[in-house]
Amino acid sequence: MVHWSKKASAVLAISILTAGSSLLAAPNAHAAIETNQVMNDITWDNTAAPAAPDQVAARAGSNQVVLTWAPVQNASSYEVRRYDVMNNTYNSVQNNTYAMLSTGITDAMFTDTTVMNGKVYGYVVNAVMANGQKTQMSMPAIAAPTEQSANVKQSLVLQSRINGSGSNTINPTINILNTGTQDVNLSDIRVRYYFTGGTGLSAKNVSLNNVPFNSRNVEAHIVNMQQPQSGADSYVELLFNAEAGVIPAGGESGNMTFTVQRTSGSVSSDYSYGSDTAMADNAKIVVYYQGGPVWGNDPGVKENDPMN
Known about the structure:
Layout: H1 10-17, H2 30-33, E1 57-60, E2 65-68, E3 75-86, E4 89-90, E5 99-105, E6 109-112, E7 120-129, E8 141-143, H3 150-153, E9 156-161, E10 173-178, E11 184-185, E12 189-195, E13 206-209, E14 218-229, E15 232-240, E16 246-247, E17 256-260, E18 280-281, E19 285-289, E20 292-295
Antiparallel strand pairs: 1-2, 2-6, 3-4, 3-5, 3-7, 7-8, 9-10, 9-18, 10-17, 11-16, 12-15, 12-19, 13-17, 14-15, 19-20
Signal peptide: 1-31
Protein name: CBM3 domain-containing protein
Organism: Paenibacillus hunanensis
């Protein structure tokens, strides 16, 4: 890994501006901002520390940013720090200071719900190893939260079907429909499938197949719920990167299949299970757009109508 000494944040400014000189003036262009990663301009005195987490990505929603990164082997937890990005610079980098956002994170994923729409934020992540040693900080990732579009809130529909599988294997095919009049970035969408028997599982237990825009453009995470509900102690969350493209107005994402291998649980007892063998609406698989739910009901919601 290359070690960078403290310096002016010109590199950050160049990286952002190459995507368009109006990005920071118009934060609603967050789709281009949030996928940019810039060189690390934070000094670490201990350059012999273990390598930082990589593949750090920040996805903006409405008053929300979702961070993901590649798991670090032998890490016991992670720490996330945040910067305000102002005038194309991290406003705290001059003094090499930062705001600790969260510690003790055990999954390679964190949701920041303390952000404000219209501002641009930068994040760095480090791991804490089992022996207590901290890694170097990651490359920064940036995101600009924006308000949800009213049209999109009412235009996304998720359909699913079951596929032949054993009772322990979750193996649905899903498709996201865009019934609206404007294109929707897949990078603004998250999908949650709720199930039981997820304790001890990780992204390694999830495989993706037949993804029309390539499975490398989809990230799968398994999250254990703090408050398990009937038919759900965990959920699979699917996230899409910028290269996944868009769902055109009046179009669809195309059918994609994911598989979760587990040692306990029953498919038909899972909250998000749908018994249809042909593609049909499934309101128990929840779709989020820019951080907010726009289709389906999570296990704590009793109504059958999609959230709005």
